[in-house]
């Protein structure tokens, strides 16, 4: 338990990201009124939750020499901004002096501190903690899968015996990667039905900026008839801001926002491919249709275990800005 640590260099900050499982960073400026208002609350959190090599609370003065490079690296444009890192990756970002929102993040953080203290790995899932991801996040972006309006999800051509569209966004580690996978009776993945094509309609609760899609696919490797073994997806077509799902004929005829070809080398050891998007085309997204056109192989079905959306969530009301405006200049 300790007070927040003042960051003086990029090297110091990066060292904390390497040595501490969880890092909470307060980006502030001395002239910023809202920063001063929330500072005691942040210090109280640090005093109660910090743990050596488990949870570290730091402060980053965006105008101090050495520290402002950290703010630039993580594209901090509003003050205050609080960024939560786990295992070196951004998992949460709070803009503005919003104690209620920060308190919610900290409650989740407390849960993860307990697990980290008990030595559990970063891949542990569960609805109460940080979501499992099969690949690192692009620097400066966060997992925004929680912005999905799950009530509006729709998946066409899914095998009913492997069907629950919400499974694709489950926060837990896929059972196929678990040591006890043989003991799991629940099928936590999705397969296509009559052929290898799938159509997934995903609405969002607010407009988002989408940077990367991470898809995890873990087909079995047992020696079975090739026609019975599902494939990983190969060709994807993405359609943005549609009011509803497309039909397969319609998806074939309409020009997509982007087409992605997934190569064999794109899949990592967790069976996850990180698919970078043409960011300028995905700036104000309210819904996304993912059309799996075909699979990588000669099989008849495609399998998907998890999907993660990486980018920036919709803007919230800001209580402080980086620019020196109004009565903040005199504070």
TrEMBL record:
Q: Which domain of life is it from?
A: Eukaryota
The UniProt record lists the PITH domain at 133-329
Q: What CDD domains does this protein's entry cite?
A: TRX_family
List cellular component terms (GO): cytoplasm
What SUPFAM superfamilies would the database entry show? Answer: Galactose-binding domain-like, Thioredoxin-like
Q: Which UniProt keywords apply?
A: Disulfide bond
Describe the location of the Thioredoxin domain by residue ranges.
1-111
Question: PROSITE patterns in the record, alphabetically?
Answer: PITH, THIOREDOXIN_1, THIOREDOXIN_2
**One Pfam family this sequence matches:** PITH
Q: Which family does it belong to?
A: Belongs to the thioredoxin family.
Extract the PANTHER family matched here.
THIOREDOXIN-LIKE PROTEIN 1
Name the record gives this protein = Thioredoxin
Q: What organism is this sequence from?
A: Daldinia eschscholtzii
* UniProt lineage: Eukaryota, Fungi, Dikarya, Ascomycota, Pezizomycotina
